[in-house]
Each structure stands twice: as C-alpha cells, then as structure tokens.
Amino acid sequence: KLQDCVRDGRPHRRQGGVNHPSDPSINHHFIKHPLHLRIILSTMSKVPLALASAVALLAAAASVSPLPTSAFVTPSASSASRVPSFLPSFRVATDLSASESPAATSDEGTSSSSSFALDRKPKSGDVVTIDLTLKPEDETTVIETLFDSSGTVSFVLGGGNYLPGLHDLIGTISPGETVEGKSLDAGWGQRRDELIAKVPKDGSNGLDYDKIEVGTELFLGNGVRCVVTEVTENDFTIDANPPLAGASYKADVELLTVEEGPGQVEFSEDDDSSAKRGRYEVATVALGCFWGGELAYMRAPGVVGTKVGYTQGEVENPAYKEVCSGTTGHTEAIQVVYDPDVVTYEELVRLGMDRLGESKFLLNQVGNDRGTQYRHGVYYHTPEQREIAERV
Predict the structure, then answer these.
(1) Listed GO molecular functions (predicted)?
(2) Is 289 a residue of the active site?
(3) DSSP state of 151
C-alpha cells in the first residue's frame, strides 16, 4: 500500500506510516489531497488469492445478499498504470485503518499479544511491533513531518505501508535487539542525472527568457514538473528530480515483538479457530474506487495492514486498465489485516458503510464512479463475519 507514492515532491501524510516511491522505474505520483490519491506500488506478485464468499450490499434492496466465493486477483505487472498488488503474504498479511475504536489497554489484550509472540527473526508476512524514531539525516533538509515517525508501531513485514528500508532492516534483527543511527532512504529515490538537462536559448521553445531565473518552475510537454537550477547567457538548466530525491532518515529501532500474520484467508464454513496461525484477522470490503477507501482503513487504530486488489471477475490476472474498463467482471476491493483486540470486525464494516454514505443505496455506483468495477460489498471470510455483515 505504500511502498510508493508522492505528489509535488512531498509524501502523503497519514496515521500509521507513509506512502513512498521505492522503485525508481515507477512513474511516481505525488499527493496533495485525498481526492487526488493515486498510490502507485511496485507489483510484488501476481499470485491470485482465493478469498471469501461475497456479501454484496445491493442498494436497490438496501440489504446484504451473498455472492459466490471468488478469488482476489493481484493487479498485473503488465498494466500500463502500475498499481499495488496483494502479496502472496496474504497467507501472511498487510497494514492500517480509521475507525473510532480506542486502542486496547486491557490486560486481556496484553496477554493475548504476548502469548502469540515468536522468539525468532521476523519473516515476510509476520506482524512486527517496533519502537521507532525517524529523523532527517541531513538537518538542513526539510522533510515533511510524517505520522508514526516515532513511538510504538505495528505492521506486516513485507506488506508495504512503511519505508521499504525499514522493512529490510527489521528482517535482520531479533526480538529485543536495537539498531541505532541506521540510514534509510526517505522514499523519493536517488537523484538521477538523466533528469537534468540544459535547454538552449535559441527561440525554438517559445519561452520568454527574461522570465527564466533560478527557481522558476516549468512543466514539460508530458506534464512533468521541473525547476530551473542555473541560467547562463546561452542556456538554462532544468532538473526534473523530485525536490527531496536523495533525502534519507536516521532510524533508531527496537524490535519488540514478532507474531504470525493471519493464517485463514480462504472462506471456511467450519470456522475452525485452531486453523488460525495467530491472533490477527482479515476483512475484505469494496467501497468503489479502492484508493480512497484504503486510505480510510489505513488510519484506523488496530489495522496493521492494507492492500488493494480485485475480487469476483472472470479474467485471470487483469491489468488495472482492463478492470477500470468494467469489462472483466472484477470489483475493486480492499483487504485489511487487523488486531481484533483493538478493533472489531463490525467496526470495520461500519467504517465502510459510513464512507459509502448515500452511495450504499446505489447499484454499481459510488459517488460519480459508475460501473460494476465500483460496486460495493462486504466479502466475508468466516460464517461469523457473514452474520455480522448481514446484521450491519
């Protein structure tokens, strides 16, 4: 969910981590406003994930109706617009959300967490809890303050939502170990010389050269923003690197606990609690365009992982543009990994309903987005979830 992303050189701010570009080959998008949210993630896997039976909230009936079991499909790496994919770790997990549920402070919640703690180095899909402090490594570099840049945070290792370098670092240490002063790329990538060019003042580009000075912002024909960094009598230099390219954080990290992510992702009529690997659970909802919906869940206390993808549909490994065309039968959906000691499944479902607003009474439409790919629904993983979803 996060591995990549920014707009105008600034990271998108949110509780529970930050969205950052990690792959320099990706066309980075920067975020100024949630309505402009376009998180572009590295495609990490195309493995389809067998998911839950579906509960579609059909607006016309204003009630919850069951749909057939379907598969969660990862966005195709061949898509022209690269989007985040569900990790095969959804036999493992992902991160964050936004409900009004307070963090659990009961003795029961504490003992539950400690009873599932593992005495080993974490691996991809584990839920890790760390004590974290992040500070700009170059004090002269002004990096926008991030949520969760200090304090105790939990997330799914390898599941995005935090700096990729932080995931890599955590994977090398054991519970109780501390790393201090570790340099982590801030997420904007390194400066690239090929994004710097000299432009001759030969009159061929129609610019008023008297207005060109150091600091002037220009936009290229493809919409890419660049800044003038040097002006001479015969030419001027432009730089299309993100303003914070090459920036880094100094991280102090203590790994507090390692726990297994949720083991039960496929729907099971038996609801055998003994089959669960850990205490974390999975919820899946469709709220129209998945970008804004995912952001809402990222901000909720108790959510330790989010991913966007597709469910239902008949086309194997569809590209993002194919799904957006409404011809594949897929629904844009959000998969959430959460701590049931902190937030309940019902609270997560109600969060989705609150976000839908009056759109929950519309069929195949959320807001101005129309089409079967934007239909809303709740996709349950257990009979208990189905009962709760139908009640809500």
Answers:
(1) peptide-methionine (S)-S-oxide reductase activity; peptidyl-prolyl cis-trans isomerase activity
(2) yes
(3) E
